[in-house]
What we know:
This protein is an alpha/beta fold. It is 37% helix and 21% strand. α6 packs across α10 (271-282).
Amino acid sequence: MIFPDFVTRHSLPVRHRTMGPLFAFILAGLLAAAPPTARSQEESAPPPAARTWTAATATQPASAPVQTAPAPEPVPSPRPVPLPTDEEIRGRVEEALSRDAGIAGHGTFQVACEEGIVTLTGSAETLSVLRQAERRAGDILGVLDVVIVCNISTAGAPDPRILLEIQRALDLPALRGDNIAVAVTDGYVHLRGTAATYARKLLAERSVSEVPGAVAVRNDLRVSAPPEGDDDALAWRIRLLLTGGLTPIPGRFDVTVKGREVVLRGEVPLYSHRIQAERLALSVGGIVAVENRLKVDPSLAFPRTTPEGTP
């Protein structure tokens, strides 16, 4: 039996095959009708920027702050050390002279000080007392120079007596073998001849200065000992004496030697150091003269200090 209406209404597979192409056609039309900006926005977006990998980025992030060393703090200058006033220097020199047994009772001194320069006036029995007073004044901190304006209280003694006393003073074992000639005129003594070393030359002059009545000494003794090397070697020996040994002289020294004549430059803390440096230079064999240009700088007697809390 044939049921045509039922077959027509329930042929579902046939209708499904007919709608497939139609559905695809409608979907394609909807896509074609979409606005172009939405579709091309993603296509036109630029690719992400390429990152460069270097050793710096591998070891330190880009956002890390740069580490810098702190600036060093300025070093404060040393505090100035107050130096004694002229009045304080005068009082200390007077005290030093009164305590020296070789000066007290052998001379009368008046002390004045102006800007560190000490002036001694008065009188002394011998030249040796005057030189001792100069050294004692030079030991005082702040003394820049010592000027002696003194008389010899024993002046006026007969020259023959002065000559006899000088000959006795020079009769020393340390001076034997030296050829020393002495002349005395109105108390002025002139030494001529030869001495084996400069130390002996200085010893002869010091011995004469202890004789009462001698008012001045001119020492023209010639050193007969050969020099202890050339000028450079002599300069080296002098520097060694000034800065080495058991008792070096404090200060800064520049030593030059030319033709066996020495020039001393630099600074020392005390005036007595200036005298000592000259004597040491003269003690080197072969030196014939010393020009002493050393300056006194009392600040060298103090260590360089900085304010508290500063390393």
